[in-house]
Amino acid sequence: MSKYQTDFLIIGGGIIGISVGRRLKMLYPEMAVALLEKEADVGFHASGRNSGVLHAGFYYAPDSLKAKLTRDGNYAMREYCQTRQIQVNACGKLVVAKDSSDLKGLDLLLQRGRSNDIELQEISAEEARHVEPRVKTFERAIFSPTTASVDPVCVMKSMRKDAQAEGVQFHCGVFFKGRTEHGVETSQGEFRAAYIINAAGLYADSVAREFGFSTRYRILPFKGLYIYSDELVGAIRTNIYPVPDMRNPFLGVHFTVTSQGTIKIGPTAIPAFWREQYDGFSHFKYEEVLDILSRQARLLWSSEFDFKRLAFEEIQKYSKAHLVNLARTLVSGIDSKLYQRWGRPGIRAQLLDIETQRLEMDFVLEGDSESVHILNAVSPAFTCALSFSNYVCDYIQKKLH
Predict the structure, then answer these.
(1) Could you read off the pLDDT of 42-51 as tens digits, one per residue?
(2) Which pTM value belongs to this model?
(3) Which CATH number is 174's domain given?
(4) Is residue 304 part of a domain?
């Protein structure tokens, strides 16, 4: 006996799953939309542990989905927060150069920003210090006025409330077990659906393989940690980032100013040994450890992005002193005694192409007329949630017609 029948069934209660559900209800108001979440509430994982930064969109290659969706997503998310009276800290972002070797990187970011129609200001070191008196930069910097910060937990609570009011049915504490002929088997029995949307984050690849997808992809988890500052609110005025190493999918250690004006430094991108390795041995799964360790071992000897170097550099960041020293290259007057509190860890669900041993840098979807699988929804997916959900639903409509 089927426990539940619906038109659209979403697996995963993160910001992408909820945003897709809301969009589907708008497009198909007469159809039923249900969402499964294995935790007791939504946003327990990446969405609720997000940095809260709303990115502007100038990091991404002009032909990428990220480039197309980030600018619009930034605007849509800021507008959403303002209409729901969720605090937005429109503090902007400085991208700074440590020395002359970073100037080409600044030029590339400016070029990408122009290609992506992003508002950016190329400024001198003196002008950068007018934005943030403590900033360090070589000769010049970039200022991004549309970068902002929000509280991701507040956003998630608001979006769930909106989705429920719009008719999305939530089923929390229900986890996916496998595919059936007419839907999926869960811990609460079978859920039948005409169309299934896999937005399972860290487990998106596992769910997708039940449907015959993600044959060449696997999730490779990376652990993100921030150190929170005890400096006074307003001690740093804006987000401050280094020029990123374009070989990596990560932006490097930086200063984030939260929606409340407090400061944190990070994040790390430490290779994790299982998918939900937040604290100690919580969520430990022996089979996951064996699988992930075997992939990491292969990457140590052969990878497009020099996994050995990346892993060595990132593991050192378990040291607070090391993380603070990296941050000192961006800002003056850092007292390490005021940077001692770890925040809640997060796990980045990074997609790996196991055929090329390459990390996927863009969003990745696979699907057909019965299901769609959101395999790679990494940063800036939180920023892009509303524009990305539109893209996903456009994809679904094309598959259905």
Answers:
(1) 999 999 999 9
(2) 0.96
(3) 3.50.50.60
(4) no
